Task: structure prediction
Amino acid sequence: MSTAGKVIKCKAAIAWEIKKPLSLEQIEVAPPKAHEVRIKILATGICRSDDHVISGAFAMPMPILLGHEAAGVVESVGEGVTCVKPGDKVIPLFLPQCGKCKICRSTRGNLCSENDLCGKGLMPDGTSRFTCKGKALHNFLGTSTFTEYTVVHETSVVKIDAAAPLEKVCLIGCGFSTGYGAAVETAKVEPGSTCAVFGLGGVGLSTVMGCKAAGASRIIAVDINKSKFPLAKQLGATECVNPLDFQKPINEVLFDLTSGEGVDYSFEVIGRTETMTSALASCNNNIGTSVIVGVPPSASQMNVDPMLLFTGRTWKGSVFGGWKSKDSVPKLVSDFMGKKFILDPLITHTLPFDQINEGFELLQSGKSIRTVLTF
Ligand code: CND
Ligand code: ZN
Ligand code: ZN
Result:
């Protein structure tokens, strides 16, 4: 029996308030309005950005349906949708590509003005498609994938190869693309260069892979959890450094390791202001580039010695790896299918959706890289 045009009752994991486990409940998912798409989610990864919302570091309106790294199948479409049809395999895009704004019209940049990084948590028309116990739920970055069904705007979804394994390519919806793109798209790492990657979670390890693919000759992996080092080496790190093993600041350690020159490219893939400044100070004082990938804590401020920038360093940020999302995600899926990169080592755990809170505990305790939840 077709569900098109009807409200779907299904299971979802709701964040009612911060610092509490997610609550598995039945929700109602309204049919897609014009230019919207309802998706049956089949696999979703747990990314640290979801956890930043739960911890309160990334301020979002509550209650909210988190999750932004997923893959699924289109269940139905609203009026006027032509980019996908029911049955298509798709990846929701937490960074939309509207095709109309200044950035979408430009060959440069990827931060479509329709993005919801500031956290409105509603569809573009200002309403929600999710309710639970009579209360409307906010969406997260226009995606919300911790649910059996979600509704997204047509600018926030793209069709992918029908043969793609969804429980793997869901990582292309965030972690892999974000980290890998920071190196190859945002920094445009050059062959033979020296890189430092701060933070070796699913995103940081993907940055390591990107640096390697770009031909970096040295990739220094930095983390305070040394259990991350074997995988970092397997994916391309040439050396691993634990800041806790040294008395001096990590930027000085990295200068020592590079004969006083600093690295060519550094990446902060943690989400802490202290490490953002350390990563900046670790790169060459004149031609070094440092990229902020970790989500900065809401309302935080940085106090930086301007001399770090005066001497010529470049400091930039990277959302979704600098990729224009709709254009790039299908290509990244094809590249995965063509074995141009691997995702398997990043997926350390696969759990049924019901065990979502265990997945968060694995992330919080530093035991997992990516947990993929299947439905
Ligand atoms: P995850 O928590 O898996 O990895 C972070 C790593 O940093 C862990 O291995 C920690 O041990 C390590 N770490 C923590 N503190 C320090 C420290 N002081 N020094 C060195 N290492 C440390 O997170 P993830 O890989 O899922 O995500 C990483 C960041 O990327 C996080 O802030 C997330 O919110 C952000 C992100 C950004 C984007 C984007 O578009 N820019 C998209 N998704 C996630
Ligand atoms: Zn993410
Ligand atoms: Zn746009």
